[in-house]
Amino acid sequence: MNISQPGLFGNQWCDAPWRLVQETITGIQSLKSDVDFMLWTGDTVPHVDSGHLSTDLNKELVRNITELMKSTFPTMPIYATFGNHDYHPKHVFPPYNNEIYNATYLIWKSWINDTSQDANFLKGGYYTVLTASGIRIVAMNSNMYYVKDTATVNLEDPADQFAWLDSVLTNASTNNEKVILTGHVPPGFTTPRAVRWMTEAFNKKFIEIVLRHSSVIVAMHFGHEHHDSYRLFYNQEGTAVVSLFLAPSVTPWRFQLADGEIEPPHNPGARLVKYDRQTGKQLDIQQYYADLNKANADKKLIWSLGYNATDLYGIQDITPKSMGNLLDKMTSATNKDFKAYVNWYNTNANTSDKFPCDDACFKKMTCGVRHLDEDSFSKCLTAVSGSVSLLTFSVYSVFYAMLFVAIYKLFN
Ligand SMILES: [Zn+2]
Questions:
Q1: 323 alpha carbon – ligand 1 mean position (Å)
Q2: Is the pLDDT of residue 387 over 80?
Q3: What pLDDT shows up at residue 378?
Protein backbone atom coordinates (compact mmCIF):
# COMPACT_ATOMS: atom_id res chain seq x y z
CA MET A 1 0.00 0.00 0.00
CA ASN A 2 1.24 3.46 -0.88
CA ILE A 3 1.17 5.70 2.17
CA SER A 4 1.89 9.36 1.47
CA GLN A 5 1.38 10.57 5.07
CA PRO A 6 2.61 7.76 7.31
CA GLY A 7 2.61 9.86 10.51
CA LEU A 8 5.53 10.89 12.68
CA PHE A 9 5.68 7.49 14.39
CA GLY A 10 4.61 5.39 11.43
CA ASN A 11 1.56 3.65 10.16
CA GLN A 12 -0.04 0.23 10.34
CA TRP A 13 0.69 -0.27 6.67
CA CYS A 14 4.43 0.33 7.16
CA ASP A 15 7.35 -0.89 9.23
CA ALA A 16 8.72 1.24 12.05
CA PRO A 17 10.30 4.55 11.11
CA TRP A 18 13.57 5.39 12.86
CA ARG A 19 11.75 7.79 15.20
CA LEU A 20 9.55 4.95 16.52
CA VAL A 21 12.59 2.72 17.01
CA GLN A 22 14.45 5.45 18.89
CA GLU A 23 11.51 6.37 21.10
CA THR A 24 10.80 2.72 21.82
CA ILE A 25 14.31 2.10 23.03
CA THR A 26 14.47 5.26 25.13
CA GLY A 27 10.85 4.74 26.26
CA ILE A 28 11.42 1.24 27.62
CA GLN A 29 14.60 2.42 29.31
CA SER A 30 12.48 4.60 31.56
CA LEU A 31 10.02 1.80 32.49
CA LYS A 32 12.28 0.14 35.03
CA SER A 33 15.85 0.78 36.11
CA ASP A 34 16.96 -2.62 37.40
CA VAL A 35 16.38 -5.05 34.56
CA ASP A 36 18.58 -8.15 34.35
CA PHE A 37 18.71 -8.72 30.61
CA MET A 38 16.83 -8.23 27.37
CA LEU A 39 15.61 -10.66 24.74
CA TRP A 40 15.50 -9.20 21.24
CA THR A 41 13.62 -11.61 19.00
CA GLY A 42 14.60 -10.53 15.49
CA ASP A 43 13.21 -9.14 12.25
CA THR A 44 15.17 -5.93 12.33
CA VAL A 45 15.05 -5.68 8.55
CA PRO A 46 11.74 -4.45 7.03
CA HIS A 47 9.06 -6.60 5.44
CA VAL A 48 9.80 -5.62 1.86
CA ASP A 49 10.80 -7.52 -1.24
CA SER A 50 14.42 -8.62 -1.25
CA GLY A 51 14.91 -6.50 -4.40
CA HIS A 52 14.84 -3.38 -2.18
CA LEU A 53 17.54 -4.80 0.09
CA SER A 54 21.04 -6.27 -0.07
CA THR A 55 23.44 -8.13 2.20
CA ASP A 56 25.19 -4.81 2.93
CA LEU A 57 21.94 -2.98 3.69
CA ASN A 58 20.70 -5.76 5.99
CA LYS A 59 24.01 -5.68 7.85
CA GLU A 60 23.76 -1.90 8.21
CA LEU A 61 20.18 -2.05 9.54
CA VAL A 62 21.07 -4.60 12.21
CA ARG A 63 24.23 -2.62 13.08
CA ASN A 64 22.27 0.64 13.46
CA ILE A 65 19.83 -0.81 15.98
CA THR A 66 22.55 -2.76 17.78
CA GLU A 67 24.53 0.47 18.25
CA LEU A 68 21.46 2.29 19.53
CA MET A 69 20.73 -0.55 21.97
CA LYS A 70 24.34 -0.57 23.18
CA SER A 71 24.46 3.18 23.71
CA THR A 72 21.08 3.19 25.51
CA PHE A 73 21.74 0.08 27.62
CA PRO A 74 25.54 0.09 27.99
CA THR A 75 25.65 -2.42 30.84
CA MET A 76 22.67 -4.65 30.06
CA PRO A 77 23.23 -8.05 28.47
CA ILE A 78 21.02 -8.28 25.39
CA TYR A 79 20.37 -11.71 23.90
CA ALA A 80 19.44 -11.20 20.28
CA THR A 81 18.27 -13.67 17.67
CA PHE A 82 17.81 -13.45 13.92
CA GLY A 83 14.36 -13.04 12.34
CA ASN A 84 13.47 -14.48 8.95
CA HIS A 85 13.77 -11.02 7.35
CA ASP A 86 17.30 -10.47 8.60
CA TYR A 87 18.95 -12.64 5.95
CA HIS A 88 19.37 -11.66 2.30
CA PRO A 89 17.49 -12.84 0.37
CA LYS A 90 14.82 -12.94 3.08
CA HIS A 91 13.91 -16.28 4.70
CA VAL A 92 16.78 -18.23 3.13
CA PHE A 93 19.05 -18.75 6.14
CA PRO A 94 21.81 -21.16 5.14
CA PRO A 95 22.87 -24.02 7.43
CA TYR A 96 26.53 -22.96 7.13
CA ASN A 97 28.82 -19.99 7.64
CA ASN A 98 28.16 -16.84 5.61
CA GLU A 99 28.78 -13.09 5.53
CA ILE A 100 25.68 -12.18 7.59
CA TYR A 101 26.48 -14.61 10.44
CA ASN A 102 30.05 -13.28 10.47
CA ALA A 103 29.10 -9.59 10.47
CA THR A 104 26.37 -10.03 13.08
CA TYR A 105 28.59 -12.03 15.39
CA LEU A 106 31.14 -9.24 15.40
CA ILE A 107 28.56 -6.80 16.80
CA TRP A 108 26.68 -9.20 19.11
CA LYS A 109 29.59 -11.11 20.62
CA SER A 110 30.15 -8.56 23.40
CA TRP A 111 26.62 -9.44 24.60
CA ILE A 112 27.19 -13.18 24.23
CA ASN A 113 30.55 -12.74 25.94
CA ASP A 114 31.61 -16.39 25.63
CA THR A 115 34.12 -17.50 23.02
CA SER A 116 32.91 -21.11 23.35
CA GLN A 117 29.87 -20.00 21.32
CA ASP A 118 31.87 -18.66 18.34
CA ALA A 119 31.55 -21.86 16.34
CA ASN A 120 27.79 -22.25 16.93
CA PHE A 121 27.00 -18.72 15.89
CA LEU A 122 29.30 -18.66 12.88
CA LYS A 123 27.92 -21.97 11.65
CA GLY A 124 24.20 -21.52 12.34
CA GLY A 125 23.42 -18.25 14.15
CA TYR A 126 22.62 -19.91 17.51
CA TYR A 127 24.23 -19.83 20.97
CA THR A 128 23.71 -20.36 24.66
CA VAL A 129 24.78 -18.26 27.65
CA LEU A 130 24.35 -18.37 31.38
CA THR A 131 22.94 -15.13 32.83
CA ALA A 132 24.44 -13.51 35.91
CA SER A 133 21.70 -15.10 38.02
CA GLY A 134 22.37 -18.56 36.59
CA ILE A 135 19.44 -18.91 34.18
CA ARG A 136 20.52 -20.48 30.89
CA ILE A 137 19.45 -18.64 27.76
CA VAL A 138 19.23 -20.81 24.66
CA ALA A 139 19.03 -18.51 21.65
CA MET A 140 17.97 -20.32 18.49
CA ASN A 141 18.02 -19.54 14.82
CA SER A 142 14.61 -21.15 14.29
CA ASN A 143 14.33 -19.39 10.91
CA MET A 144 16.11 -22.44 9.51
CA TYR A 145 12.90 -24.41 10.16
CA TYR A 146 10.62 -21.90 8.41
CA VAL A 147 8.74 -23.36 5.43
CA LYS A 148 10.16 -20.58 3.25
CA ASP A 149 13.79 -21.41 3.99
CA THR A 150 14.64 -23.19 0.73
CA ALA A 151 18.25 -23.71 1.89
CA THR A 152 17.25 -26.13 4.64
CA VAL A 153 13.91 -27.61 3.66
CA ASN A 154 15.21 -31.08 2.77
CA LEU A 155 17.67 -31.41 5.63
CA GLU A 156 17.15 -33.39 8.82
CA ASP A 157 19.03 -31.12 11.15
CA PRO A 158 20.15 -27.79 9.63
CA ALA A 159 23.51 -26.66 11.04
CA ASP A 160 23.13 -29.46 13.63
CA GLN A 161 20.98 -27.13 15.74
CA PHE A 162 18.57 -29.84 16.95
CA ALA A 163 21.43 -32.08 18.11
CA TRP A 164 23.00 -29.08 19.83
CA LEU A 165 19.70 -28.10 21.48
CA ASP A 166 19.19 -31.62 22.74
CA SER A 167 22.68 -31.73 24.27
CA VAL A 168 22.45 -28.22 25.80
CA LEU A 169 19.17 -29.16 27.48
CA THR A 170 20.57 -32.49 28.68
CA ASN A 171 23.57 -30.69 30.19
CA ALA A 172 21.30 -28.11 31.78
CA SER A 173 19.43 -30.88 33.53
CA THR A 174 22.68 -32.45 34.75
CA ASN A 175 23.83 -29.07 36.07
CA ASN A 176 20.48 -28.21 37.68
CA GLU A 177 20.05 -25.17 35.47
CA LYS A 178 16.76 -23.71 34.28
CA VAL A 179 16.43 -22.62 30.68
CA ILE A 180 14.67 -19.87 28.75
CA LEU A 181 14.43 -20.72 25.07
CA THR A 182 14.27 -17.74 22.74
CA GLY A 183 14.06 -17.34 18.98
CA HIS A 184 11.98 -15.85 16.21
CA VAL A 185 9.83 -18.25 14.15
CA PRO A 186 7.82 -20.31 16.68
CA PRO A 187 6.59 -23.89 16.45
CA GLY A 188 2.84 -24.47 16.20
CA PHE A 189 0.15 -22.62 14.27
CA THR A 190 -0.62 -18.94 13.98
CA THR A 191 -4.32 -18.41 14.53
CA PRO A 192 -6.99 -17.60 13.55
CA ARG A 193 -5.30 -18.09 10.17
CA ALA A 194 -4.37 -21.66 11.16
CA VAL A 195 -1.01 -21.56 9.42
CA ARG A 196 1.98 -23.64 10.55
CA TRP A 197 5.26 -21.70 10.18
CA MET A 198 7.70 -24.59 10.27
CA THR A 199 7.78 -27.55 7.92
CA GLU A 200 5.80 -30.42 9.39
CA ALA A 201 8.97 -32.43 10.02
CA PHE A 202 10.84 -29.57 11.74
CA ASN A 203 7.79 -28.63 13.79
CA LYS A 204 7.42 -32.22 14.99
CA LYS A 205 11.07 -32.59 15.87
CA PHE A 206 11.15 -29.29 17.75
CA ILE A 207 8.08 -30.27 19.80
CA GLU A 208 9.63 -33.66 20.64
CA ILE A 209 12.80 -32.04 21.97
CA VAL A 210 10.90 -29.45 24.04
CA LEU A 211 8.69 -32.13 25.58
CA ARG A 212 11.66 -34.41 26.30
CA HIS A 213 13.31 -31.59 28.26
CA SER A 214 10.25 -29.86 29.68
CA SER A 215 11.53 -30.16 33.25
CA VAL A 216 14.37 -27.70 32.61
CA ILE A 217 12.57 -25.22 30.32
CA VAL A 218 10.90 -22.47 32.35
CA ALA A 219 9.55 -20.63 29.30
CA MET A 220 9.96 -19.95 25.62
CA HIS A 221 9.85 -16.35 24.33
CA PHE A 222 9.54 -15.97 20.57
CA GLY A 223 8.38 -13.34 18.05
CA HIS A 224 7.50 -13.33 14.36
CA GLU A 225 3.71 -13.03 14.61
CA HIS A 226 3.45 -9.34 15.68
CA HIS A 227 0.46 -10.30 17.84
CA ASP A 228 0.43 -11.00 21.57
CA SER A 229 -0.43 -14.64 22.14
CA TYR A 230 0.77 -17.87 23.75
CA ARG A 231 0.90 -21.60 23.23
CA LEU A 232 1.26 -24.58 25.55
CA PHE A 233 3.10 -27.85 25.22
CA TYR A 234 1.11 -30.68 26.83
CA ASN A 235 2.67 -33.98 27.86
CA GLN A 236 1.07 -37.40 27.23
CA GLU A 237 -0.83 -37.17 30.49
CA GLY A 238 -2.49 -33.96 29.28
CA THR A 239 -0.59 -31.63 31.61
CA ALA A 240 0.68 -28.28 30.32
CA VAL A 241 4.45 -28.43 30.86
CA VAL A 242 5.97 -25.58 28.82
CA SER A 243 4.61 -22.12 27.91
CA LEU A 244 5.57 -20.38 24.70
CA PHE A 245 4.97 -16.62 24.74
CA LEU A 246 4.81 -14.58 21.54
CA ALA A 247 5.66 -10.94 22.17
CA PRO A 248 3.82 -8.30 20.14
CA SER A 249 6.05 -6.37 17.76
CA VAL A 250 7.39 -2.86 17.88
CA THR A 251 6.64 -2.51 14.20
CA PRO A 252 2.99 -1.60 13.60
CA TRP A 253 3.09 -3.31 10.20
CA ARG A 254 0.15 -5.68 9.77
CA PHE A 255 0.57 -8.78 7.68
CA GLN A 256 -0.67 -8.45 4.13
CA LEU A 257 -0.91 -11.87 2.60
CA ALA A 258 -0.53 -12.96 -0.98
CA ASP A 259 -4.16 -14.06 -1.15
CA GLY A 260 -5.29 -10.53 -0.30
CA GLU A 261 -6.08 -11.36 3.33
CA ILE A 262 -4.97 -8.73 5.83
CA GLU A 263 -4.28 -9.38 9.49
CA PRO A 264 -5.91 -7.11 12.07
CA PRO A 265 -4.12 -3.92 13.12
CA HIS A 266 -2.06 -3.71 16.28
CA ASN A 267 -0.09 -1.14 18.25
CA PRO A 268 3.65 -1.25 18.98
CA GLY A 269 4.42 -3.29 22.10
CA ALA A 270 7.25 -4.17 24.49
CA ARG A 271 7.06 -6.23 27.67
CA LEU A 272 8.69 -6.77 31.01
CA VAL A 273 8.74 -10.34 32.28
CA LYS A 274 8.97 -10.90 36.01
CA TYR A 275 10.78 -14.06 37.07
CA ASP A 276 12.35 -15.68 40.09
CA ARG A 277 16.12 -15.43 39.86
CA GLN A 278 16.64 -18.62 41.82
CA THR A 279 14.23 -20.92 40.05
CA GLY A 280 13.63 -19.14 36.75
CA LYS A 281 9.89 -19.48 37.44
CA GLN A 282 7.95 -17.06 35.24
CA LEU A 283 5.77 -14.87 37.42
CA ASP A 284 4.14 -12.15 35.37
CA ILE A 285 4.15 -10.13 32.18
CA GLN A 286 3.77 -6.37 32.19
CA GLN A 287 2.72 -5.55 28.66
CA TYR A 288 3.41 -2.00 27.51
CA TYR A 289 2.11 -0.46 24.32
CA ALA A 290 2.00 2.84 22.47
CA ASP A 291 -1.27 4.08 20.95
CA LEU A 292 0.01 4.83 17.47
CA ASN A 293 -2.92 6.92 16.21
CA LYS A 294 -2.87 9.06 19.33
CA ALA A 295 0.92 9.43 19.14
CA ASN A 296 0.72 10.68 15.56
CA ALA A 297 -2.14 13.07 16.40
CA ASP A 298 -0.38 14.43 19.52
CA LYS A 299 3.12 14.27 17.97
CA LYS A 300 4.18 12.52 21.16
CA LEU A 301 4.68 8.81 21.78
CA ILE A 302 3.66 7.53 25.20
CA TRP A 303 4.47 4.03 26.44
CA SER A 304 1.63 2.93 28.71
CA LEU A 305 1.07 -0.18 30.79
CA GLY A 306 -1.55 -2.27 29.00
CA TYR A 307 -1.88 -5.08 31.50
CA ASN A 308 -0.32 -7.25 34.14
CA ALA A 309 -1.10 -10.81 33.01
CA THR A 310 -1.95 -11.99 36.53
CA ASP A 311 -4.44 -9.13 37.06
CA LEU A 312 -5.96 -9.23 33.59
CA TYR A 313 -6.61 -12.96 33.66
CA GLY A 314 -6.95 -13.61 37.39
CA ILE A 315 -4.12 -16.15 37.47
CA GLN A 316 -1.42 -16.65 40.08
CA ASP A 317 1.56 -16.49 37.77
CA ILE A 318 2.41 -17.34 34.16
CA THR A 319 3.66 -20.89 34.65
CA PRO A 320 2.35 -23.58 32.26
CA LYS A 321 -0.13 -24.68 34.91
CA SER A 322 -1.60 -21.17 35.26
CA MET A 323 -1.62 -20.55 31.53
CA GLY A 324 -3.39 -23.92 31.13
CA ASN A 325 -5.98 -22.82 33.70
CA LEU A 326 -6.50 -19.66 31.69
CA LEU A 327 -7.07 -21.69 28.53
CA ASP A 328 -9.59 -23.86 30.40
CA LYS A 329 -11.43 -20.71 31.50
CA MET A 330 -11.78 -19.50 27.91
CA THR A 331 -14.85 -21.56 27.05
CA SER A 332 -16.52 -19.42 24.37
CA ALA A 333 -16.04 -16.44 22.10
CA THR A 334 -18.01 -14.32 24.58
CA ASN A 335 -16.08 -15.39 27.68
CA LYS A 336 -14.52 -12.37 29.40
CA ASP A 337 -11.01 -13.84 29.58
CA PHE A 338 -11.15 -14.74 25.91
CA LYS A 339 -12.36 -11.25 25.01
CA ALA A 340 -9.47 -9.76 26.98
CA TYR A 341 -7.07 -12.13 25.20
CA VAL A 342 -8.41 -11.03 21.79
CA ASN A 343 -8.20 -7.35 22.74
CA TRP A 344 -4.53 -7.71 23.68
CA TYR A 345 -3.84 -9.98 20.72
CA ASN A 346 -4.24 -6.66 18.86
CA THR A 347 -2.25 -4.73 21.47
CA ASN A 348 -5.40 -2.72 22.17
CA ALA A 349 -5.56 -1.26 18.67
CA ASN A 350 -8.63 0.95 18.70
CA THR A 351 -9.50 0.97 15.02
CA SER A 352 -12.69 0.35 13.11
CA ASP A 353 -11.41 -2.85 11.47
CA LYS A 354 -10.52 -4.44 14.78
CA PHE A 355 -10.50 -8.17 14.69
CA PRO A 356 -13.97 -9.66 15.24
CA CYS A 357 -13.45 -13.10 16.79
CA ASP A 358 -16.58 -15.20 16.27
CA ASP A 359 -17.18 -18.84 17.23
CA ALA A 360 -15.12 -20.22 14.34
CA CYS A 361 -12.29 -17.84 15.21
CA PHE A 362 -12.56 -18.82 18.87
CA LYS A 363 -12.16 -22.46 17.96
CA LYS A 364 -9.05 -21.81 15.88
CA MET A 365 -7.49 -19.55 18.51
CA THR A 366 -7.99 -22.01 21.37
CA CYS A 367 -6.98 -25.03 19.26
CA GLY A 368 -3.79 -23.11 18.43
CA VAL A 369 -2.93 -22.54 22.09
CA ARG A 370 -3.38 -26.21 22.97
CA HIS A 371 -2.23 -28.08 19.88
CA LEU A 372 1.12 -27.43 18.25
CA ASP A 373 1.49 -30.50 16.06
CA GLU A 374 -0.19 -31.09 12.72
CA ASP A 375 -2.33 -34.09 13.67
CA SER A 376 -3.81 -32.85 16.90
CA PHE A 377 -4.36 -29.31 15.60
CA SER A 378 -6.24 -30.62 12.54
CA LYS A 379 -8.32 -32.94 14.74
CA CYS A 380 -9.12 -30.07 17.06
CA LEU A 381 -10.35 -27.91 14.18
CA THR A 382 -12.62 -30.61 12.84
CA ALA A 383 -13.95 -31.73 16.23
CA VAL A 384 -17.64 -31.10 16.83
CA SER A 385 -18.38 -28.21 19.10
CA GLY A 386 -19.45 -30.53 21.93
CA SER A 387 -15.80 -31.29 22.49
CA VAL A 388 -14.79 -27.69 22.73
CA SER A 389 -13.80 -28.13 26.36
CA LEU A 390 -10.98 -30.24 25.01
CA LEU A 391 -10.00 -27.50 22.73
CA THR A 392 -11.60 -25.40 24.07
CA PHE A 393 12.23 -11.57 39.73
CA SER A 394 12.95 -13.67 46.13
CA VAL A 395 14.51 -11.03 44.80
CA TYR A 396 12.37 -11.02 41.80
CA SER A 397 13.68 -9.48 38.72
CA VAL A 398 12.53 -8.76 35.27
CA PHE A 399 13.77 -8.88 31.77
CA TYR A 400 12.61 -7.30 28.60
CA ALA A 401 11.30 -9.41 25.79
CA MET A 402 10.51 -7.75 22.58
CA LEU A 403 10.20 -8.22 18.94
CA PHE A 404 11.84 -5.36 17.29
CA VAL A 405 11.25 -4.60 13.77
CA ALA A 406 12.78 -2.36 11.31
CA ILE A 407 14.22 0.89 10.81
CA TYR A 408 13.18 1.76 7.39
CA LYS A 409 15.43 4.56 6.39
CA LEU A 410 12.95 5.98 3.93
CA PHE A 411 11.35 7.65 6.92
CA ASN A 412 14.50 9.08 8.40
ZN1 LIG B 1 9.36 -12.86 11.15
A1: 24
A2: no
A3: 96
